[in-house]
Design the sequence.
């Protein structure tokens, strides 16, 4: 695609993200994503959508479109009003959309060979902190409120352990006695660096990212895990509640078959490193219900 065509494509996509939309066309499959970087996410979403659409002609799908939203509230509205059919999101955001828009989970998403992960809370080796309960009176670095592994899961773990949470104005501030103070580090690299340098007392993010950090950074040998969270899906595909059952079922089939189709491999890699899509088993559904309830309690307690 030359520069002008690419500009028009991205401009059209951004327009869709910002402008009111007409009612959904029954022959168009609309894939949604909450994004603060529409161009990057467009490039990640479009190849898989281009793979899926031709394989859904038998249920009347002739075209695919991408719809971005600035935030969860707007995507919730899009789902409720039929402006988006299929949304790909992480567990924290996906659970919010499920609860607010009654959007069912179509499939779970395995990324880089991992379908579920946990959050780990870690400190420096020389820290007096040994358990989650010991975090009272200390400072914890998280990523941002939209993160599953670096916000929601550690928050659930802390509150379930009876440790209240207090947001701090800066890492130099201290929490009130009896609770843990948290600040946002924005990236896993920042969180780890802050802990290593003693800017904060503890950090938290996924066990997958922690293992990768240990492999690539010798300084990570100075870090010690003091707690682990419950498990959560890496990501999930959800659909609007009133999506035509024939379209929904065909989409599920196409996505499930994609991992064994060589033609889908490049599109899956671009789709956030997806290796395959996974059926929602009764066991997974029950675990997701537990996570959803824990997330609800946690957000009510700290937000």
Sequence:
């Amino acid at each position: 695609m030359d520069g002008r065509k690419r500009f028009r494509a991205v401009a059209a996509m951004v327009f869709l993200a910002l402008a009111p939309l007409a009612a959904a066309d029954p022959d168009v499959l609309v894939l949604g994503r909450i994004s603060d970087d529409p161009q990057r996410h467009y490039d990640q979403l479009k190849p898989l959508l281009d793979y899926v659409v031709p394989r859904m002609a038998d249920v009347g799908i002739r075209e695919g479109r991408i719809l971005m939203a600035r935030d969860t509230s707007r995507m919730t509205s899009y789902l409720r009003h039929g402006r988006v059919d299929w949304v790909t999101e992480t567990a924290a955001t996906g659970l919010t959309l499920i609860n607010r828009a009654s959007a069912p989970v179509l499939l779970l998403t395995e990324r880089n060979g991992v379908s579920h992960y946990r959050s780990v809370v870690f400190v420096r080796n020389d820290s007096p902190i040994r358990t989650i309960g010991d975090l009272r009176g200390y400072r914890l670095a998280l990523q941002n409120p939209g993160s599953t592994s670096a916000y929601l899961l550690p928050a659930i773990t802390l509150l379930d352990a009876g440790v209240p949470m207090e947001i701090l104005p800066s890492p130099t501030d201290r929490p009130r006695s009896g609770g843990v103070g948290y600040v946002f580090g924005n990236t896993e690299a920042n969180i780890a660096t802050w802990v290593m340098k003693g800017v904060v007392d503890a950090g938290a993010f996924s066990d997958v990212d922690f293992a990768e950090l240990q492999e690539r950074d010798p300084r990570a040998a100075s870090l010690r895990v003091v707690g682990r969270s419950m498990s959560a899906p890496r990501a999930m595909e959800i659909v609007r509640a009133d999506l035509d059952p024939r379209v929904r079922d065909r989409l599920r089939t196409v996505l499930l078959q994609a991992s064994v189709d060589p033609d889908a491999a490049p599109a899956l890699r671009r789709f956030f490193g997806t290796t395959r899509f996974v059926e929602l088993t009764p066991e997974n559904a029950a675990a997701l219900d537990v996570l959803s309830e824990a997330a609800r309690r946690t957000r009510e307690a700290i937000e």
